[in-house]
Amino acid sequence: MFHQADLFDAVEVGQGAAAKSLNLPALIERIADFSARPRYAFMVLNLIAKAAGGNSGSAGPYVDTEEEARVPLRDWLCDSLVPMAKRDARRLMIVEEVKASLAAQDALPEDAQEAAEMIDREVRERVRRSGRCNVSRAVSDLVRAGLVRRHYQGYRVDHHNRGAQREAVYTITEAAARALWSQKAR
Question: What top-level branch of life does the organism fall under (predicted)?
Answer without folding.
Answer: Bacteria
